[in-house]
Amino acid sequence: MYGDYLLNAQGEDVVAGIRNTQKIENLGKEMPRRITSFWILPADSSGITQRWQDVEFTIERGKLWMLQTRNGKRTAKAAVKIAVDMVNEGLISKEDAIQRVTTENVDTLLHPQFDEKAKKESREDRQIYR
């Protein structure tokens, strides 16, 4: 699980960047009695569709409320990697993996991509000349 949270805040605080969020791993330290139900719910919801889920939640007066969950967004490269990883982990079949990679994903991957090493070097070069 990957994510972040804010205590004593509203969703707008996160969206507007008014306050810095905490890593979701720290939630168990701050609210250990609630963390068990939190870890169970997203696993169940992603298990239904076996897709990566973007989950929004709130904890009010010590009670966990799931606000919404939806399929998470990802790049074309990530969509392929996730599908391959899920096949390798035995979570889905090869046929299911192929169906999860959209024609838009394939189209994106067929176009030239920037090399990550070259992008990093370019950023470093720009910093030197400033």
Q: What's the quick description here?
A:
This protein is α+β, with helices and mostly antiparallel strands and 130 residues long.
Describe the structure.
This protein is an alpha+beta fold and 130 residues long. 53% of the residues lie in helices and 16% in strands. It contains 7 helices and 4 strands. The protein has helices at 11-16, 27-30, 32-49, 76-88, 94-100, 103-110, 116-128, and strands at residues 4-5, 22-23, 53-60, 63-71. Strands 1-2 form a two-stranded antiparallel sheet. Helix 4 packs antiparallel against helix 5 (94-100) and helix 4 crosses helix 6. The protein is extended.
Features:
130 residues; alpha+beta; Pyruvate Phosphate di-kinase, domain 2; 2 domains; two-stranded antiparallel ribbon; two-stranded antiparallel sheet; extended
The separation of the N and C termini measures 39 Å
Order of H and E elements:
EHEHHEEHHHH
Oligomer: single chain
How large is the count of helical segments?
7
Query: What structural class do you assign from the helix and strand content?
Result: alpha+beta
Q: Would you give the CATH topology of the largest domain?
A: D-amino Acid Aminotransferase, Chain A, domain 1
Which helices and strands appear, and what pairs or packs with what?
Layout: E1 4-5, H1 11-16, E2 22-23, H2 27-30, H3 32-49, E3 53-60, E4 63-71, H4 76-88, H5 94-100, H6 103-110, H7 116-128
Antiparallel strand pairs: 1-2, 3-4
